[in-house]
Design goal:
seven-stranded mixed β-sheet; single chain; two-stranded antiparallel ribbon
Length: 208
């Protein structure tokens, strides 16, 4: 008997990381971390699926990557996430087998390592008859609101305009979600020069 097909992502939304104020105004997608732009860490992690980068026009993305910005620009990660979802809906066929979308911020280079654990938790919850709209990474007791996987059918109901300048936490309160504990190094972000220096020394799965 064939083993059941494992749950997989059908798209990935990458949030551009804000203004980089504590990094002297640097563009977070363009930060070079261990020889790669921060953006490239997310783009190379999930091959074969559509990628949406919520970044300004000044950020260069590969030709096969969709680039969008929420309207108005800089109106927060919740609005950016929904802008990314709306862009994916335009390219994903209705009969897409997996209806799950990944979300990561560009300034957490190892965030995509969490996806196997997150999707495994979704499968387990579904097998127990529990409804799940989304699953979030959690490290050292802190939920990472920008690192997760979401049911496309659950989040497609939202519009960008209703989430302008509102928090991602508020959006998550509208969904049935679960948290999954992951290593802290996988969700470590780059907000300061010392964070960047730490990231240069980290290896996949090692402490940052």
């Amino acid at each position: 008997m064939d083993s059941p097909q494992r749950l997989a992502l059908s798209g990935l939304v990458i949030l551009g990381g804000g203004t980089g104020q504590r990094l002297g105004g640097a563009s977070k997608p363009d930060l070079v971390v261990r020889g790669r732009r921060a953006l490239e860490w997310a783009l190379t992690s999930e091959p074969g699926i559509p990628h949406v980068c919520v970044v300004p026009e000044t950020v260069t993305v590969p030709r096969d990557v969709i680039r969008v910005m929420e309207e108005p620009p800089r109106s927060g990660p919740a609005a950016g996430f929904i802008a990314g979802i709306q862009a994916l809906l335009k390219v994903l066929p209705e009969e897409t087998p997996s209806r799950w979308i990944g979300l990561v911020p560009v300034d957490a280079p190892l965030a995509t390592l969490t996806f196997p654990l997150l999707l495994e938790a979704v499968e387990e919850s579904i097998s127990q008859g529990r409804r799940v709209d989304g699953v979030l990474a959690c490290a050292a007791g802190y939920r990472q609101n920008l690192i997760g996987a979401f049911s496309l059918d659950a989040v497609r109901k939202f519009t960008v305009s209703q989430w302008v300048n509102r928090s991602m936490r508020a959006l998550l309160e509208e969904l049935d979600t679960i948290d999954v504990e992951v290593p802290e190094s996988w969700v470590a972000d780059i907000d300061t020069p010392s964070d960047l220096a730490r990231a240069q020394l980290a290896e996949n799965g090692d402490d940052c």
